[in-house]
Amino acid sequence: MKRGKKTITAIVMMLATIITAIILLANRKKRGDELAIIQGYRPVIPVEIIYPVMKQVSQTYTENGTLKSAAEVTILSETSGRALSVNGNIGDRVSQGTVLVTVEKEVSESQLQLAEMNLENAKKDLARYALLAGEEAVTPQQLEVARLRYQDAFTQHKVAKKQLENCTIRSTVNGVIAERMIEEGSFLMPSMPLFTLSVQDRLIFSVHVTEREVLLLHPGQETQVSIDAFPGEVFTGNLRGISRTPDMAGRYEVEVVLRNPEGKLLAGMSGSAAFTPEEGKKALVIPRKCIDGSIREGKIFVVRGDSVAACRIEAFTLNENEVIVREGITGTERIVVSGQINLENDSRVRVMNSKKPEE
């Protein structure tokens, strides 16, 4: 009897354990389902949008700058010998072909005379061997040797002639002597620097412009330049180059070519350049407040369906409230202008306005 009671008690306890386990599993599944629902919940954030606007951004602005030479050319010696005469001092204007230095040339003249004699003899020998070859009096090999001797003599004559010409050193450009590094009696060696010439018939006016201004410029654009040394006068030039890399101050170098046939302008003079972008120049413009963070980072949120995508753009300041977008959008996007503080990539949104503004 006692054994029967123990068996019944054991069965009851086993059933109670099984029931408890079933209840615990059911509760765990319920909590898991509730947690999954919570984790999968994505709030809908109300936002306002705008569309980019094509806006004419033409305007005139002025930047200060400095004149510099369009090029500096170093005249090098191509021969060796003593300088017999040196012509020109710092500041003197010289033309292309002007004689700057004459070098002793007795040795070069003798070498040219010898080369001329050798060339003449080789020419006669070649003619004679060619005649004899026609009569089969010499072998083809002998004729070929005569031809090679003539070619060698011709080359030596050409070299000797060039060496004699190098004894007269001339200016290779129209310019102003910026530096003189030789005196009469100096002994020259090949590749020795003699003069530095600064090209002055055209000058470069160098200025640095802001990120907003550089966007509106293009090579060849006409520019008005005023030089402080000539008040009231305006010089017209054209943009030659525009840097695409900013300096430490975030500004971009721009070069304006100015013609200077009379030599009136001098390198180092300061002044200002007035830039006027072409009429009808347009660019995509959006409000500054569309950008999340700094303009340099250039991140905006674009509405796509019922969510947003974070997009990088290249933008420049137009004024206090607007920026010019250079890259990153096409002009048809719906861009969040209000409510983006709560957004991240792929956030769900509800657009509170939908009217596309007039361009």
CATH class of the largest domain: Mainly Alpha
The overall average pLDDT, rounded, is: 84
Tally of helical runs: 4
* Rg of Cα set: 42 Å
Calculate the terminal CA-CA distance, rounded to whole Å.
Answer: 99 Å
The CATH architecture term of the largest domain is Orthogonal Bundle
Structure class: alpha+beta
Count of distinct strands = 23
CATH H level, superfamily name of the largest domain: Helix hairpin bin
State which percent range the strand residues make up: 35-45%
Strand order of the largest sheet: 3-12-15-14-13-16
Order of helices and strands: HEEEEEEEHHEEEEEHEEEEEEEEEEE
Shape: elongated
pLDDT under 50 segments (min length 5)? 35-39
Number of domains: 3
> Largest sheet, if any?
6 strands, antiparallel, barrel
Helix share, percent: 25-40%
CATH topology of the largest domain: Helix Hairpins
SSE layout and pairings?
Elements: H1 2-39, E1 44-50, E2 53-56, E3 61-69, E4 72-76, E5 81-86, E6 93-94, E7 99-103, H2 106-134, H3 140-165, E8 168-170, E9 175-180, E10 187-188, E11 193-199, E12 202-209, H4 211-214, E13 222-227, E14 235-242, E15 252-259, E16 270-275, E17 282-287, E18 299-304, E19 307-312, E20 314-317, E21 322-327, E22 335-338, E23 348-351
Parallel strand pairs: 1-23
Antiparallel strand pairs: 1-22, 2-17, 3-12, 3-16, 4-11, 5-7, 5-10, 6-9, 7-8, 9-11, 12-15, 13-14, 13-16, 14-15, 17-21, 18-19, 20-21
Helix pairs in contact: 2-3
